[in-house]
């Protein structure tokens, strides 16, 4: 079986895959119970008071969840400030523009964090802004944006706060209520280690209630989706039954591992093992260490003219290691993820394979 050193879909455990070896009806009690159990667990992971927050599960990939929130949370006279330092921030802008939502955009370099001082200046001087959206773990590079600091500003200036924590939720302790987040979105196939099939939104009830009657679409109506789930644990349209059964198992394994903090330690250790190897090889990391998260790393292409990414990728793939191409706007890089069912031995194996491929390709990075 191949090892996926990617930001998702990721390797899942045998039991997670086995959980899909059942035919379960969308109205079966077994299924609707799984849905409600998952919704409740997600609130525990988000560290929120269940009286103040609720979960909505949305069929489709992560982007469907973002589009559901962005399209439902803003009313005609509202204005969304989007804080962008990578491709996923740009994606939020594309969604907002497609839905004819008025936006303000603050762009930062791909190798720098969203700067709270600049954000505060904008919030002060542009009171027509009603909502703020940003990415926590910008998967384009692997940096972690300062969601807590921006959350404080949103509270101070009374803005609705939307966070895309797709690639980090479940792999980083995240205080959703404490950080004043109104809507946080993630998906089934990232750090919770389930299979692809749905996204989920952790929503402040007060903010979700304001979405009623506001959706421009039927299928991505966040409020109606919530109402359906609340009434009977049922989805309005065909649910991803097997992905839900797998996710229920994935959550129980997260708990067994010791919760989010234990998982974070495993991922951090994976990263340390990886970086020890890549540094010894002379590979250069794209981000400064201070802003690097532990989900995924970007590495610059070696400067040797004979380095060919497609060949490098294919040769690693043939050895069972799937890495990830880069998505940077200005430099050539590739990415390696530390998440999913990956352990120290897998990271060591990847490093060994990279060294072998470099030798075959006659690429010498070390001086
Ligand atoms: C994975 C990811 C998404 C969602 O991508 P999909 O392909 O729609 O699942 C969104 N934002 C970030 C930061 C991600 O890492």
What does this protein look like?
- The protein is an alpha/beta fold and 367 residues long.
- It has two domains: 21-256, Type I PLP-dependent aspartate aminotransferase-like (Major domain) (Aspartate Aminotransferase, domain 2), CATH 3.40.640.10; 259-360, Aspartate Aminotransferase, domain 1.
- 41% of the residues lie in helices and 17% in strands.
- It contains twelve helices and 14 strands.
- The strands form four sheets. The protein has a seven-stranded mixed sheet, with helices on both faces.
- It is globular and about 60 Å long.
- The protein starts with a strand and ends in a 7-residue tail after the last helix.
- The structure holds pyridoxal-5'-phosphate.
Uncertain runs: none
Structural class category: alpha/beta
Secondary structure: number of strands: 14
- Bin the strand percentage: 15-25%
Oligomer: single chain
SSE run? EHHEHEHEHEEEHEEEHHHHEHEEEH
- What average pLDDT do the residues reach? 97
In whole angstroms, the N-to-C terminal distance is 35 Å
